[in-house]
Copper resistance protein D domain-containing protein (Virgibacillus kekensis), 165 residues
Amino acid sequence: MPWEMRQIILGIHIFLAIIWVGGVLFIGWGVYPALRKMAYAKQREFFLALIQWSHNFLTAAGTGVIATGIVLGTLAGPINQWADLWTTRYGNLWLAALVIALLTLGWGVFIGYRQSVKVFSNISIWELADSGETKPLSKALGTTIAIESVEVGGFIALLVVMILL
């Protein structure tokens, strides 16, 4: 593959990674804390709409990161045969990055997102919080934060592997 084409694919890879990781982190560390200052009913309504809207977009970005990473390691990279995955340092790290990325995306899509929708769709705990009983909501949000933190851990692991490549 021509060097220029590889650089274009690398640029797309980095851009999509910024969207995927940045989007997840911005929602979790930027939007969520700001929403906590709103009334409970508004928090629930806004956050549910936000995660439902952003889910497909962020999933597509994550899928694009993985797809371009596969191209960068194989068609535009040094992995030419299956044995390269097991016998070269690059192949080992590339395979580790692929597995971590797939697990991170899968966790976000199938576990983190579903947990968030479950909590933000549970109107009763939000109504209880409005009436002063915040313990069930705090517990549910704490569980959601813990579950979503696994995705952040995956991003950190990916970054470490990318630095080692």
